[in-house]
Amino acid sequence: MGIRKIEMDNMIIKVYPAEGEDLPVIYSCQYMECGKLLLDQCSRIGCPPFRLVTISRISWDEYLSPWPSDPVVTKEDHFTGQSPEFLQWLLQKAVPWAEKKMDPKPSRSYLSGYSMAGLFSLWSAYQTDFFDGYVCASGSLWYPDFLSFAKEHDLAKTPEGIYLSLGDQESAAANPALQQTESVYRALDEYYAQKGIPHIFELNPGNHYQDTALREAKGFRWLLQGR
């Protein structure tokens, strides 16, 4: 069976085939669809088998921002805080369609994302108990008030694991908000450790735009290997 694809509410969903029994599924929200590149990187680093579902052509700032905010990175930022609506769309429309293309239905489901999609992935851990683990690769955890939100709210359930990663040059930015990114990550790393939440924080070489697929693939491998 080949790749299954649908355009749904102006977004693109792709289900990539995989061979094996009782395979988990990873849902990856992407700025530009890069499923093949991601799978190539997973193969290169020895990631266990899984099914991949990509969701792309997302209204990036709008759908992946958890609450409204003024611009932070550029004047063109449009953070309208529509993550609650996007998460409901994902759970009620995208996931059911994808699961119908997978036989048997996966026993474990994970959520992953890079940049703003990484922020959305981690935020979703506080909203739904559907997913069993999360990848937040170079996530936009500089987002206003996210650190306080993460400390003041409970996760929907204790996940199998939360993978946090960041480039070691990402906080070397002129923007004061972006300069705080690594400190936010380290604060969450310490907080999750205190709470006994299974997680890891990894620093990767480079800036925000370096090795994006590889960084996400490393998160997949960590989750699927059972740590």
Summarize the structure.
This protein is α/β, with parallel strands linked by helices.
- Mean pLDDT over the residues: 96
| Distance from first to last alpha carbon | 31 Å
Portion in strands: 15-25%
Q: Can you tell me the overall shape?
A: globular
Low-confidence stretches: none
User: What is the SS-derived class?
Assistant: alpha/beta
Q: What is the H/E string?
A: EEEHEHHEHEHEHHEH
**What characterizes the major β-sheet?**
8 strands, mixed
Radius of gyration, in angstroms, nearest whole number: 16 Å
Question: Helicity, in percent?
Answer: 25-40%
Task: Give me the side-by-side strand order of the main sheet.
Answer: 1-2-4-3-5-6-7-8
Number of helices: 8
Work out the number of β strands.
Answer: 8
Commentary on this structure:
The chain has helices at residues 35-44, 60-64, 83-100, 116-124, 146-152, 176-179, 181-195, 212-224; strands at residues 4-8, 11-16, 25-29, 51-56, 109-114, 133-137, 161-167, 199-204. It has 227 residues and is α/β, with parallel strands linked by helices. Strand 5, helix 4 (116-124) and strand 6 form a beta-alpha-beta unit. Helix 1 packs across helix 8. The longest helix is centred in the middle third of the chain and has 18 residues, at 83-100. The protein is globular and about 50 Å long. The mean pLDDT is 96.
List keywords for this structure.
single chain, 227 residues, alpha/beta, 8-stranded mixed beta sheet, 8 strands, 36% helix
What's the arrangement of secondary structure elements?
Blueprint: E1 4-8, E2 11-16, E3 25-29, H1 35-44, E4 51-56, H2 60-64, H3 83-100, E5 109-114, H4 116-124, E6 133-137, H5 146-152, E7 161-167, H6 176-179, H7 181-195, E8 199-204, H8 212-224
Parallel strand pairs: 3-4, 3-5, 5-6, 6-7, 7-8
Antiparallel strand pairs: 1-2, 2-4
